[in-house]
Known about the structure:
Blueprint: H1 3-14, H2 20-34, H3 45-58, H4 63-75, E1 82-90, H5 95-105, E2 110-112, E3 115-119, E4 124-126, E5 131-143, E6 150-163, E7 168-172, H6 177-189, E8 193-196, H7 199-203, H8 216-231, E9 235-244, E10 253-257, H9 265-272, E11 276-290, E12 293-304, E13 310-313, H10 320-339, H11 343-354, H12 361-375, H13 379-392
Antiparallel strand pairs: 1-7, 1-8, 1-13, 2-3, 3-5, 4-5, 5-6, 6-7, 9-10, 9-11, 11-12, 12-13
Helix pairs in contact: 1-3, 1-4, 8-10, 8-11
Amino acid sequence: MDINIFVNEFKSRMKNNLYKKKRLGNFSRYFKAKEDNREIEFIDNDECLTYIIEYLNKNDDNSEEIIQELLLVLDQSVSNRNPHYTMDFDTDKSIYDFHDYITGIFRNVIRNDDCEYTISTEIYLDDINQIIEIECDYKELVVDMDSGNEYKKSIGIIKLYFDLKNKKYISSKAGNRKIHNNIYDFLIGKGIALKPLYILKRAQTIKNKNQSEFAASTLLVANLLFNSFKGMELNFNLEFVDFINMDAPNVQGMTLKGTKLLMAPEILQRIHNGDEIFKFKVSIEKLYDENGDTYLFSTTFEVNFEGKISFIFNEDVENSELRYSTVMEIHDELKRLIYNERTIEIGIEIINENLPKPKSMQLIINDLYADVIKLIKNKDEKIAIEKYFLEKYPMFLIK
């Protein structure tokens, strides 16, 4: 491909691009790998394109191959959703032995079913905090039924995080759930001990679950928001919640968004209907100390109970270590609540105290009628008011 054609393609696809920052980051990563991990970070499209043109001119003999690689970078799927799949992880290897083992696994291109993984940066090792991080480019491949040839369905980045001290594994960055499941299957096949947490499935085993009219997952969330977050010194605001009730005759699922959601009658009614919470989004704030100074950490994420538990951030959070520690702590707290014999009892108390059942329309109209009729002294006017309510709301009993 001629360089001018690539330049036009770059300008066309990067103009007014909602994910421009992430795409520039992908180009930075590409050239960092090409330039022996030299720090490269592009601020805007012009700086990136200038660098690309200079690089192609310096490597004229390989320019065609490089342009094809750059087109793949341009094609990488990007999203403002950054899911974090958290799992328990254990190994009897030391941090150095595990690093060597992982390095051996990812030394060559990995193929698992219809997905390929290529390590894109040097494997990160933190022997003090016992952390290993791996970043890979992935390709999801499909076969053309007519020609039999493979072609790329999607490409992108996935990041793997192994915390040997806290015994946790986190996969992130890839917006495609299939990629997370595929790399999980691959790692399990290599003998790496990972144990995902299935909240909706495990919630059905909570002791005394059948003693409550409320859904088990809803009681878990009530415990988490009203008790656990307080113990974790987290201030929170609920931004949306997804309910599901497969036994409901009409509406089986509902997503509710807004402000002061925990006071909204629609939320309270779904809770008291016995609906399951399977997804919710919170904004949190937490103070933390660093080098004697106090800082505020704040972020927003979605907690998803569908399948393996995941925490979905809108974009990269500046302090990744606090992000990781927060989701690991919430993961462990939910697991603790599942096995706690008092979770159901405490959850019921929380709901009865903080999330009361909303008044029915009948009670609201009856109360309104009673308040209005108290204000009327004239007998004829009282009769007229009563007639109005009976005609306007014939289905409701007026006492």
